[in-house]
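Progress narrative, work stream C.
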Amino acid sequence: MAADGGSEGSVRQRVRHEMKELLLIAAYLAAFFVSLTTYRKLILAEYHIGYFEYGWALMEAVVLAKVILIGELMHIGGRFHDRPLIVSTLWKSLAFGMLVAVFVIVEHTVSALLHHRPVAGEFNFRGGRGYELLARIQLMLVVFIPFFAFREVSSELAGGKLFELFFRRRVPVVGEDEGGKAEQP
C-alpha cells in the first residue's frame, strides 16, 4: 500500500495516464510549434538568415503541455463547464491563453536576464520582439479552440468513446454497407 492509502498499482496507473496525457498534448502543440518554426525558417531563408530552432519548439511544446495539465489540475477554465460546449470551449481557450501569456512573459523575462539584456527591451512594442510576443499569444488562442473543443467533447462522451471513434475501426451499423451507405432494398 502506498502512503496515500492507494495501492502501488493505482499510483502506477495514474502516472501512466498522466504521461499519456502529457505526450498527447505535447504532440498536438509540437505539430503547431514545428509548423510555425518551419514557416519562420522559410521566411528568413529569403533574406539569407539561418534559423533552426526545432529543438526549442519541441521543448516548448512539452513545457506548455505540462502547464496545461497543471492548469487543468487547478481547474482553470472550469467556470462554465455546465454551459453549452461552445461556451466552455471558448472560455477554456481564453483562460489558458491568459495562462500561456503569463508563461510567455516569464519566458521572455528569464531569457533577457540569462542573456544580459534589459528586460524592458523584451516588451518594447516598437521593435519586432514585442509584436512577436503578441502574435504568439494570439496564435495560441487560435490553436487552443480546436484543442479544448476536442477535450470538452471527450469529457462529455464517457469511457474514452471519442478516442475510439477517432482511432478504432468502426463497425457498420445494421442496414449499412462497409462504406457507411444504407443498403438499397
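Work stream C, second folded protein:
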Amino acid sequence: MSWGKLPLFLSCYHCSKKSTRQFYTNFNDNNHNNYNKKTPPLKLPFLHVSGSGQPFIWLHGMLNSVESDSVYSLIDFESLQDQLSVVRYNYCDKSVDGDYSWPALTNELISVLDAQKHEKILMGGLSMGAGTAIQAAVQYSERVKGLILVTPPPAWEMREKVKAVYRKVISTTNSKVVPELLKRIIQLNQDPPEYFEKNHPGTRQQLLEHRLSFEPKYYTQIYLGGANSDFPSREQISLINVPTLIIAHADDPNHPLETAQELNKLIKGSELTVISNYEDYQNLQNKVRHFILKHGFDNKS
C-alpha cells in the first residue's frame, strides 16, 4: 500500500511567516493536457514559497500536505532556502471535489509553472508526488530540469494490489465521518521512521493528527485518484533524460525498494540513495544540496 511517506524536515510551520510567501493564482489555459494539449480552466492552489532564487517545486505524498511536510520530511526544505526558492502547494487546495489522479495533478503542475512563467524547472516529489513528477517528465520533458524522487510508490504489476486496497477504502468512506477502517490504516503507518522519531519525539503524533484532519469526503477523492493512477510505461520512463536523484528507505513496505531500484535502472544516469538510519538522513541533506548546486542552475527557469 502507498500511504505516502513524507519528505523533508522543517522545525516550524512551513518555515516561518517571515520567510514563507503565499500566492494564489487563478490561471486559465488551453495549451496543456495529458493527451490532446487542451485542458479545462483550472483554479490553481495557494503557493507556499520559502527562500529566494531559482525555483524548486515540491509535490507532497498521499495524505500529506504542506502542513504535514513542515513537521517531517526526508528532505530538509529549510536548509535549501539559501540556495533557491522552494515552492509547495496542496493539490487542488485539498478540495473535496478535486481530481487527484496523477495525470490531473500533472495538468495542475504544468499550469502552475505557466502561471509563474517557469519555462524549465527542477522538481521533486514524494510517493504520489514522485509519480506526478515522473508523469510530467514523460509528458513535458522540455519543462523539467531535473528530478528528485523520494520513496516512489508501488508501480506496474505491484500496483494492482494497491489499487484493490484503495477501492476497498473508498467503499467505506462517506461525506460525514472518517470511517474506522481508514483511521486504523492511518494509525498503523509508522511515519516518521523509528530513527527519526527517536531523535524528534512527538513527530509521529503530529503527523497522525494532520492525516486525520481532512474533510471526510477528501479521503474518497484522494484514494480514488490513487486507484486510477500508475507510472507511465517502462519504455516511456526509459526515455527520461534529465539528472535524477532517487531516494528510498531500505525497509518501507508501502514504498518498496524494488520500485526505486527499477527506476534507477530505467532512467539513464540516475543515482539511487537508500536511507536506513539517522546518519543516512543527515548525509542525505548534503547530497541533495550538492545535486541542486550541480543541476539546478544550468538552464533558464
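The longest helix spans residues 278-295. No further action is required on this item.
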